[in-house]
């Protein structure tokens, strides 16, 4: 026990003497929260629109002003020819072209459908889908306005049955994207600290050669590993506390559930992450290799975990993969506990799975680790 | 020249003998393309919903069938009280609860009006928003069928053309981004680390006292990575084109030329980093924070720049990958020629010149203790 304590003490002294560590511990979370939360948004506003009005009628102008009045669209250019408008699209100066063909109003007045053309830059498929949805809504509203003006006369004959749809968004009524991202980014933070710092720390001793000196001491394998991992376990938990307070202060994220539960889950999750870090350190001989391997694993696990996109819409094999993906479990737990106030019984299965993954990974890493250079 | 070739050969051996680096070099683009191509989607599919049907009549039953038959939703639970809603939301699998009011069909017949309440778990706001939109759409469709009102006479019909990416494939968005990211990773980060590594291990001293000129050392270090970066770029474009059917409308040689310019920018950044640092850890952290994060986040790779707050948008303007991504998209997907991208190309060239000048000024022939 005493040996472990000394190793831990040595690690803490080394960490505190390292010029790079202090900025990493304090600056990285701030930068991540500030930049990631603001940059990582799929919200669309200010879609750049180019209008080609070939009809020049009262109706077409009304339709266009309906677009410019919406908070989503900004009409940047108007043109008379479609080919000129397409140039704007091609140069990336506009995202969508609204073309009103000639005889638009005339068609409407003679009870023919009036066609308008929307040409959307669809390279970003998600954005294109949203642009389409927003313009659809605006045109629908416009249709309703027109028909309510026209149908009034015929109103008394038939009264169509209507279903009144109301909706409520629970836990996040304003659909604030930041409350969604902050817990996920905290997970990223804890993972970074656990995976990179812990893994690279051991490899660094290998590369510099000081591991030799430790190997010749009578220290046991488990003592060495515990001594190496515990400091980073503590630092990562501290980071989580720091990040949570920042999230509360900067973004006022809700914390409905018990914070103890969050830290319990983090403590278990970190065992899995540190185990992965240790495993990578047994594979690598240089810090460069360790970093690239960590980076590789992290990208794969992180992208599949549902940090940015919902897990349900992934293909079946990806969902099976997520059964062994610790990041996926931890992100779920964080969001559930912080945003929805889920209790211990709701996240029991996730906690158990995390514990199982953690002990499996750690056992594998410890088995692979050899006390020889 | 012979010495130089020998040096380049040494560098190649360094890289090729290290399987871990090779995995990163060639495994990374493949796996990322697959992940982005198949896994990362914003589509709605099989979202789990629950129904709280207080009426349980023939109309609600048909409507529920209609909703589940759409393929977007999967009915997993029928619940019987409001209290249960909170419970199932807290468990976290059900994303939406559809609540029918009592006497739904009766009210619809008698008063011509009945209510449905959609409750969503908005801890995932995007999903919640999409789910509500899709469900409302299905319900309106149902009503239109019931009322046979599908053909309202006066109507504006939008005709939509999705230009450049008619099937709205996510890969089209990601291929340029992954290319920028990998070229950055290979050219800037690997170079900077491999130079600082020689410094840290002390072998840099050996190289500096050798008859090789400093310029030759730098070029020798850089040459293998240029080649590898090029191979990576070709792999990415090939997978994008042959597996995901991404078109290459513009000229391939222009594309390669632009890639070469971007590689030059990235390499000069890598050399710059290596001249200001002495340890691998610092080089790595600098590369991660100053190069990797911006390449992923501030380049328009995943998240559109237009939606960011203005300080971040300003920051995006000085990120080289931003311009490279614009150029690639323009050439590959829009089939534009040089005339459309000369401005971005010029900016990249200016950046390259600036970084090279800066690092030449900073490069030290001697090592300090």
Verbal overview:
Chain A is α/β, with parallel strands linked by helices. Chain A folds into 2 domains: 2-40 and 175-368, no CATH class; 47-142, 3-Layer(aba) Sandwich (abc type-2 transporter like fold), CATH 3.40.1710.10. Chain A is built from 14 helices and 5 strands. Chain A has helices at residues 2-17, 21-39, 58-69, 82-91, 104-109, 125-151, 177-208, 210-215, 221-251, 259-283, 287-304, 316-321, 326-340, 348-368; strands at 47-53, 73-79, 96-100, 114-121, 162-170. Chain A has a 4-stranded mixed sheet, with helices on both faces. In chain A, helix 3 links the parallel strand 1 and strand 2 (73-79). In chain A, helix 7 (177-208) packs antiparallel against helix 13. Chain B has 369 residues and is an alpha/beta fold. Chain B has 2 domains: 2-40 and 170-368, no CATH class; 47-146, abc type-2 transporter like fold, CATH 3.40.1710.10. Chain B contains 14 helices and 5 strands. Chain B has helices at 2-16, 19-39, 58-69, 82-91, 104-110, 125-147, 170-201, 203-209, 214-242, 252-276, 280-297, 310-316, 320-332, 338-362, and strands spanning 47-53, 73-78, 96-100, 113-121, 156-163. In chain B, strand 1 (47-53), helix 3 and strand 2 form a beta-alpha-beta unit. In chain B, helix 7 packs antiparallel against helix 11 (280-297), helix 7 crosses helix 13 and helix 10 runs parallel beside helix 14 (338-362). The longest helix of chain B is centred in the middle third of the chain and has 32 residues, at 170-201. Chain B is elongated and about 95 Å long. The mean pLDDT of chain B is 82.
């Amino acid at each position: 026990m005493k040996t472990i304590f000394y190793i831990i003490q040595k690690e803490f002294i080394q960490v505190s003497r390292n010029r790079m560590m202090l900025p990493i511990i304090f600056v990285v979370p701030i930068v991540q929260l500030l930049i990631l939360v603001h940059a990582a948004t799929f919200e669309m506003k200010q879609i750049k629109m180019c209008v080609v009005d070939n009809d020049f009628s009262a109706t077409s102008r009304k339709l266009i002003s309906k677009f410019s009045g919406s908070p989503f669209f900004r009409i940047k250019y108007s043109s008379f020819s479609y080919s000129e408008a397409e140039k704007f699209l091609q140069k990336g100066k506009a995202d969508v072209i609204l073309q009103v063909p000639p005889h638009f109003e005339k068609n409407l007045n003679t009870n023919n459908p009036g066609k308008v053309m929307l040409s959307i830059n669809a390279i970003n498929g998600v954005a294109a889908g949203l642009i389409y949805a927003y313009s659809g809504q605006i045109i629908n509203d416009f249709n309703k306005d027109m028909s309510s003006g026209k149908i009034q006369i015929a109103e008394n004959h038939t009264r169509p049955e209507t279903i009144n749809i109301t909706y409520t968004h629970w836990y996040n009524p304003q659909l604030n994207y930041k409350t969604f991202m902050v817990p996920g980014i905290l997970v990223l933070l804890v993972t970074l600290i656990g995976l990179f710092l812990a893994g690279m720390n051991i490899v660094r001793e290998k590369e510099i050669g000081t591991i030799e000196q430790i190997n010749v001491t009578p220290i046991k394998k488990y003592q060495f590993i515990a001594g190496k991992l515990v400091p980073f376990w503590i630092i990562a938990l501290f980071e989580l506390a720091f990040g949570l307070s920042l999230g509360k202060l900067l973004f006022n994220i809700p914390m409905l559930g018990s914070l103890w539960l969050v830290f319990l889950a983090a403590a278990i999750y970190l065992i899995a992450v540190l185990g992965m870090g240790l495993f990578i350190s047994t594979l690598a001989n240089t810090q460069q290799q360790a970093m690239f391997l960590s980076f590789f694993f992290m990208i794969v696990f992180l992208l599949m975990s549902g940090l940015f996109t919902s897990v349900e819409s992934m293909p079946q094999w990806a969902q099976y993969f997520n059964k062994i993906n610790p990041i996926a479990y931890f992100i779920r737990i964080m969001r559930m506990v912080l945003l929805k106030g889920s209790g211990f019984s709701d996240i029991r299965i996730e906690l158990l799975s995390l514990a199982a993954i953690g002990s499996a990974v750690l056992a594998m890493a410890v088995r692979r680790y050899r006390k020889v250079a | 020249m012979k010495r130089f070739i020998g040096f380049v050969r040494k560098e190649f051996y360094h890289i090729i003998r290290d399987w871990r680096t090779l995995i990163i070099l060639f495994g990374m683009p493949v796996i990322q393309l697959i992940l982005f191509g198949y896994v990362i989607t914003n589509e709605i599919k099989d979202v789990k919903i629950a129904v709280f049907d207080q009426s349980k009549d023939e109309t609600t039953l048909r409507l529920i069938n209609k909703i589940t038959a759409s393929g977007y939703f999967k009915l997993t639970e029928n619940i019987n009280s409001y209290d249960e809603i909170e419970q199932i939301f807290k468990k976290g699998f059900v994303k939406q609860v559809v609540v029918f009011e009592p006497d739904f069909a009766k009210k619809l017949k008698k008063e011509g009006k009945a209510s449905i309440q959609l409750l969503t778990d908005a801890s995932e706001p995007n999903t919640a928003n999409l789910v509500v939109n899709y469900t409302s759409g299905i319900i309106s469709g149902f009503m239109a069928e019931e009322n046979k009102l599908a053909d309202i006479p006066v109507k504006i019909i939008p005709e939509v053309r999705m230009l450049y990416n008619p099937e709205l494939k996510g890969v089209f968005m990601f291929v340029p981004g992954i290319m920028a990211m990998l070229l950055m990773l290979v050219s800037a980060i690997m170079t900077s680390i491999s130079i600082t590594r020689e410094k840290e291990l002390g072998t840099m001293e050996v190289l500096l006292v050798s008859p090789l000129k400093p310029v030759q050392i730098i070029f020798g270090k850089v040459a293998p990575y240029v080649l590898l970066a090029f191979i990576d770029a070709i792999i990415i474009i090939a997978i994008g084109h042959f597996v995901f059917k991404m078109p290459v409308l513009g000229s391939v040689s222009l594309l390669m030329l632009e890639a070469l310019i971007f590689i030059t920018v990235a390499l000069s950044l890598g050399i710059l980093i290596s001249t200001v640092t002495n340890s691998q850890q610092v080089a790595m952290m600098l590369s991660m924070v100053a190069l990797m994060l911006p390449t992923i986040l501030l380049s328009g790779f995943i998240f559109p720049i237009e939606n960011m707050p203005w300080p971040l948008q300003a920051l995006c303007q000085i990120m080289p990958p931003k311009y490279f991504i614009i150029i690639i998209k323009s050439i590959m997907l829009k089939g534009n020629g040089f005339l459309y991208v000369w401005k971005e190309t010029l900016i990249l060239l200016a950046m390259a010149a600036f970084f090279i000048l800066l690092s030449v000024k900073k490069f030290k022939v001697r090592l300090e203790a």
